[in-house]
Amino acid sequence: MSGYFGIYNYWIYIALMMIGFYGVIAKMNLVKQAIALGIFQTGIFLFYISMAVVDGGTAPIWTTIGDGSLKHLGPYDNPLPHVLILTAIVVSVSILAVALALIINIKRAYGTIEYDEITRLDSDEIDDA
Amino acid sequence: MLEIQAHLPVLVVVVPLIGGVLTSLMGRGALPWAWATLVTGATFALTLRLMATLLASGAPHISYEVGNWPRWWGIEYRVDLLNAFILLVVAGVGFITTIYAKESVADEIPRDRHNLFYTVWVLAICGLLGITVTGDAFNVYVLLEISSLTVYALIAMGKDRNRKALTASLRYLILGSVGASFILLGIGYLMMVTGTLNMEDMREQLLRTPDLDHHRTVLVAFAFLLVGLSLKMALYPLHMWLPKAYTYAPSAVTALLAATATKVAVYMSFRFLFGIFGPEFSFQRLPSHLILLAGACLGVVFSSLSAIRQQSVKRLLAYSSVGQIAYIVAGFSLANENGVAASIIHIFNHAVTKGGMFMAVGAVALRVGGTDLKHMRGLGRRMPLTMAALTVGGLGLVGFPLTAGFISKWYLIKGALDAGMWGLIAIVLLGSILALVYVWKIIEAVYFHEPEDPRARDATEAPIMMLVPMWTLIGLSLYFGVDANFTSDTALRAAKSLLGGAP
């Protein structure tokens, strides 16, 4: 595996991110926008995880062999990006939670979660530039 | 006491973090407000002390390793003159706005939600302070999201007055999250190249990277960060979330946001563009100064034109904020001493001016029940002190001599002259004229019309708890318009160290 296809998870990350980005921009349904935002951020998680890979590396865990002594399995993948992404997942979940809370409130206030209808209901303002 | 002294940098974040969470337990009376005031006041005292310690030590920076982990493993908090100054501004304005919030929030937010309101309020300030104090790139992202999430919630709290607060908040949430994700990606690519998250180590590694100009990963990192930061700063044309968010947020929240949130995003740009990439790479070898300058110039002109057309004063001032941010961006993208100093000075000057003005508008919302020009008609005689604050602040936006706005523009024009950018001077002058037009619209309504709204006819002066914070900020903008030694000295010294490439 070499060349541009050898690092295929980067292609997947870009594809996921673009699918999400497209959804955020193009979808009129607010829940779909929130889902798309989730896909967008998941793409970024994959990017961080991919960058942690070391050639021939394994999970950075020590195991014990028969007599109870520690066995060094190295080389290890870089655990730091994994830890960072744990944090980023928490952040992403919080964002989704706040977004959904807002969408519930919007549904109560407007009776719809379609962006174009909401814009029509709110069309009494000067909103340009 | 000695213990506190040694842990000052981290206490600036820890005190509002724990204090903020505790606010939610404070019941339903005035207690949440009193507690929030106490916490933000203590935080402000800590930042003052931090500044004093830094100045007394004479060292270029104070470094603090969180949990005693060495900085290449753990998180380093790093305070130099620039972020000590920004910390002071954010914590100071945060404290003053918290005092102001009492009357305004009591009027605008249902009573059973006050404790939650002040919880997210204090946490928002905590996030903003954290972004400013940290020296770790990933920590910036986490704290950025803490401040962003709380700000979305704060904006949405305006829903009881106008349901548009909800859509404004969701729109900001989606754009803000995309922006923050771009920043996260940029940090990731930087980590791929440098293998570290510490900003200073990143700088050192980048300096050692051969052929930086054509290093594709570095360029990608730079592009993602530039777009993400511009979104967070609300640089034209990525400002679309700002006017609605500021218009429909509760009055106290607008004052806090206008004074601090975008300013901290500008500070992040300083750290990334100057601190990590270095001014030479960002502004000489890459044409990013042209992109930023173009956005800034368009922003000054078009946002001012939009401001002129508004009927809602809150919205008018929001568009004016986009224009003022554009001045700040124009200043640092010149990448010379006077230009960068102009940015830093204007962060402070605009924070106190616009913060004070939004407080005045909030007082009108309390007394008259609306913030359109038609509600403001004839208030000049009924709320003289509030309207005087609004007028003085407005003159500051125009950049009249003896106001702080004049000092910022003075340095900006000096910076433009140093860079030989005559066009920018023309834009600054044009922007001032346009600002005069929209400020005049307010002054005309306030002083040269009879009240239209029945509630405006028997409006009385704002309560003292609003007037004092309002005039503290406006008073600061006047004081630093006359005696600008402290702000300009600090800004010039900070600008020098930024241009020297210090992270």
Protein described:
The complex is a heterodimer of chains A (129) and B (503). Chain A is built from four helices and two strands; from the N terminus they run H-H-E-E-H-H. Chain A is mainly alpha-helical and 129 residues long. A two-stranded antiparallel sheet of chain A has the order 1-2. In chain A, a hairpin with a 5-residue loop joins strand 1 and strand 2. In chain A, helix 1 packs antiparallel against helix 2 and helix 2 packs antiparallel against helix 3. Chain A is elongated and about 75 Å long. The mean pLDDT of chain B is 90. Chain B is globular. By secondary structure, chain B is an all-alpha fold. In chain B, 78% of the residues lie in helices and 2% in strands. At the A-B interface, helix 2 and helix 3 of A face helix 5, helix 6 and helix 12 of B.
Q: What topology emerges from the helices and strands here?
A:
The complex is a heterodimer of chains A (129) and B (503).
Chain A: H1 8-26, H2 30-51, E1 63-64, E2 70-71, H3 79-110, H4 115-121
Antiparallel strand pairs in A: 1-2
Helix pairs in contact in A: 1-2, 2-3
Chain B: H1 2-23, H2 31-57, E1 61-65, E2 76-80, H3 81-108, H4 114-133, H5 137-156, H6 164-194, H7 199-208, H8 216-233, H9 242-248, H10 251-276, H11 279-285, H12 288-308, H13 313-333, H14 337-368, H15 373-376, H16 379-382, H17 384-398, H18 404-419, H19 422-447, H20 454-457, H21 464-482, H22 485-499
Antiparallel strand pairs in B: 1-2
Helix pairs in contact in B: 1-2, 1-4, 2-3, 2-4, 3-4, 3-10, 3-14, 3-21, 4-5, 4-10, 5-6, 5-10, 6-7, 6-8, 6-9, 7-10, 8-10, 9-10, 9-13, 10-13, 10-14, 12-13, 12-19, 13-14, 13-19, 14-17, 14-18, 14-21, 14-22, 17-19, 17-21, 18-19, 18-21
